[in-house]
Amino acid sequence: MKTDNKKEGKTLGRVYHTFGPFVFKEAKVLILGSVPSPKSREQGFYYGHPQNRFWKVLAAVFGEKEPACVEERKNFLIRHKIALWDAVESCEIAGASDATIRNAEPTKVEEIIKDTSIEQIFATGKTACRLLEKLQGIKAVCLPSPSPANCSVSFEKMVNAYSQILKYL
Predict the structure, then answer these.
(1) Residue 62: domain span
(2) What is the per-residue pLDDT across 132-143, written as a single tens digit (0 to 9) for each?
(3) In 3-state terms, what secondary structure has residue 50?
(4) What angle do CA 59, 65, 68 make, to 5 degrees?
(5) CATH number, domain at 15?
(6) Whole-angstrom Cα Rg for the chain
(7) Which of 34, 102, 106, 137 could lock 92 by a disulfide, CB 3.0 to 4.6 Å apart?
(8) Contact status, residue 26 vs residue 81, Cβ threshold 8 Å
(9) Pairing between strand 88-93 and 102-106?
(10) pTM for this predicted structure
(11) Domain count of the chain?
């Protein structure tokens, strides 16, 4: 649904998280993004844009082949005890630009992790970190955004940063 709000010449539309958290009892790490991109909402799973580096980076961290489809991605996450969710349940946003997020409604992170083994929360990008702390009072380890828009961080630096996850697994 489109609104009349404008930010940097782009129309903001209200988006809702159209799929739930990927969380399971044995998960030890929770990785939170900000809000799913249009491609992720279309696929019904996280980090669905083909140019997003999330899956490629995680595969490199674990020395594995990049999971190619949603089913392989879910199996990868279960095998490595990683849960996924987002900081925002709904918001106004222009396309997939986190910089345009307005009127964000938070997800219920504390509620979904209470019956898990999650020891550490990570967030992919500064916006996700900021929203998580501002909206829910939760501090997370801030990882570089794997978004194609974040080309300033090299693949090698991203793999190094995401390797922090290993000490909690």
Answers:
(1) 2-168
(2) 999 999 999 999
(3) coil
(4) 90
(5) 3.40.470.10
(6) 15
(7) 102
(8) yes
(9) antiparallel
(10) 0.90
(11) 1
